[in-house]
Amino acid sequence: MIGGDAIQSFEDGTAEATVSSAMYEDMARAALTNSRWRFATDQAILNRLAEKPTGRFEAAYQLPSEFIMLSAITVNEYPIKYDLYGSKIFCNAVETDTVIADYVFRADESGWPPYFVTAVEYMMAGVLAVSVARDSQLASLMEQKANFQMIQARRLHSQQQTTRKLNTSRFIAERRS
To answer: pLDDT tens, 144-155?
Structure first.
């Protein structure tokens, strides 16, 4: 995309490979946390820790090791108040509660849909345009294309779940009054 040499691996010794090796994982993780991508979202029942938090909360729970961003904590399908401390959740759940986390994880590239792959490719092209090609105009163009592709990816991805019906009864009642 930027006119550089193709790389065979992150360790092939070229400038492109060196920059890609240094930046790829950060760019992939940033893209995965850009939206609530269903292909990179999971749920887990959290394990309650024996040690209680120092203050404000009654319980601590361990998050899954693969989590990179937390979306929600629920008990009986209802969101509860929590705070994230490192890889732990502090909340006021009781011992009998089943605490469930919705979280984003580092999904393997083989599971990425094509529209997401394209967005990440443009993100990497923007990084390489600055670092390897040393062309700020090309970098700006690639960043614009990456932003556009990410918007397209979110739009396409949103079509892969049941459409939510907008509750308009409140609006209609207000309009009629």
So the answer is: 999 999 999 999
Please state, in angstroms and rounded to a whole number, the distance separating the CA atoms of residues 49 and 138.
Answer: 50
State the chain's mean pLDDT as an integer. Answer: 89
Strand order in the sheet with 67-75: 41-45, 99-105, 67-75, 78-79
116 neighbors 152 (Cβ within 8 angstroms): no
Looking at the DSSP bridge assignments, the partners of residue 47 are 62
48 close to 33: Cβ distance less than 8 angstroms: no
Distance CA 139, CA 131 (A): 9
Beta bridge mates, 102: 43, 72
pTM of the prediction? 0.79
Q: How far is CA 48 from the centre of its chain?
A: 25
